[in-house]
Give the backbone structure.
Amino acid sequence: MSNHRLSLPFWEGFLVSSLDVVGNQLQVRLAADPAYALICSHCGASASCIHETTWRTVRDLPMAGLPVFLTIAVNRLRCATCCRCCTQRISWLDRHARVSRRLAEFVAQWSEKLPIAHVCQLTGLHWGTVHQIHRQDLERRVAALPPPQPTRLVMDEFALFKGHRYATVVLDADTRRVIWVCEGRSREAIRPFFAWLGPERCRRIRAVAMDMNTAFDLEVKCHCRQAKVVYDLFHVIAKYGREVIDRVRVDEANRLRDDKAGRQYVKRARWLLLRNPGNVPPDQAPKLAELLEANQALMTVYVMKASLKELWQPTNPWCWRAAWRSWQHMAKASAIEPLKRFARRLALYWKGILARMHWPMHTGQLEGINNRIKVMKRMAYGYRDSEFFFLKIKAAFPGNP
């Protein structure tokens, strides 16, 4: 222990009266510096009358590899300006806080890059303390964002937990800001989003890009009657791959059950058939050509996939109408039941496909964000609190200024 009092810039307004190493802790005792004026935390006025003095213990950044515990003499002041007793203002310590402001900033900064458990090991703080500090920082950052005024939206879902549990993300297509995240993908799950937007902002929405999710479609039409629903090409092609190409491939493999070599050849060609022609590796191209030449049904659905993509190419509505009717006619004339069934279902969504002509939107922006969300979830080994996870997503994607 030393009787010499030391003034340090990061403990403004206080002097170090003692410094001791006890076990594996660095214990520092701070007394008020008489050279600094006492400031009322309520009104910010100078107040010299001390009502009482209490001692508070707070944590600060580690020093020399040791956790630091500060014992501070905190004064309660009788303020003549606001006529009340208030705790003195301390520039480096928030009111009622048990950690210093610089430690809280350190925790908040590293919580963006590391899992909470790793930040606990780094600082020696309890998991709940780190979680609370990080949550408060996220809430401040999200609250500081301006109210969104979207005119175009993108809606999609991502897997929240195993067992087909999903969460819905809503993105402002113009600013790339995540403005809403909620658990579930039903109409009941996303209805609070439109209630939060309010009638005035709902009237501003002109177009919404989504997959062929009926719940999203119905809620948009209910609350944003003037908005155009735009169906995303990626999701339609993915659905075509699952419901048509995969189904035909399995049926053809079953048909060849007596030809074991041919059956295995067709069964193992799944990813080759689902690839775009431009993405087929050069060494696999002859195999794909041989497979399509030997199987008429697979050739038909493979060519029809390429024709389906052309419906999303920018053109005038009359050319689109002719291409749409041609594709539907070829699908019905193919005599391939999975393809005919898909064409009948797709016919119900023709308005959302045609809207692509006037609103060239897609969910690609949100797909990239969803991939980053998966990385966040994987890095933390999952989240106990979905609300905290959604808050973290909003803070991570505040959009362009």
Observations:
- The first helix runs from residue 101 to 111.
- The domain at 152-232+361-396 is CATH 3.30.420.10 (Nucleotidyltransferase; domain 5).
- The longest strand covers residues 50-63.
- The mean pLDDT is 88.
